[in-house]
Design brief:
Length: 96
C-alpha cells in the first residue's frame, strides 16, 4: 500500500487513492469485521467478476485470519511489538 492509501484508509470509499476493485475488497474486509457479519451476496457477485472462486476463497481466508489474529491479540491484551514505529494505520471510523 502507498502512504496515500494508508492515510486515506479510513475514508477509502471516497478516496481516489484506491481503484474500484480495491474499494470492493475493502468493503468485503469491513463487512467481515462487523458484528454481526454483513457481506451482501451482491458484493461477492461483483468480486466474482475480477476473481475466480479460488481467489475469493483465498481473499476471504486472509481477511478472516487477520480478524482472528486481531481479536485474539486484543482479548489477551497483546500489544504491538514496535516493529512499525513511525508508521501508522488509522483505525476506521465507527458508526455512531
Amino acid at each position: 500500500m502507498s502512504e496515500e492509501q494508508l492515510r486515506d484508509l479510513a475514508g477509502y470509499e471516497s478516496s481516489d487513492a484506491f481503484s474500484e476493485l480495491e474499494k470492493r475488497v475493502l468493503d468485503l474486509a469491513v463487512g467481515m469485521t462487523r458484528t454481526p457479519l454483513d457481506v451482501p451476496e451482491a458484493l461477492i457477485e461483483e468480486l466474482s467478476k475480477a476473481f475466480d472462486e479460488g481467489q475469493i476463497v483465498e481473499l476471504t481466508t486472509a481477511i478472516a485470519w487477520e480478524n482472528f489474529r486481531a481479536r485474539f491479540n486484543h482479548s489477551l491484551g497483546i500489544e504491538p511489538g514496535g516493529f512499525t514505529e513511525g508508521a501508522f494505520c488509522p483505525l476506521p471510523q465507527r458508526d455512531p
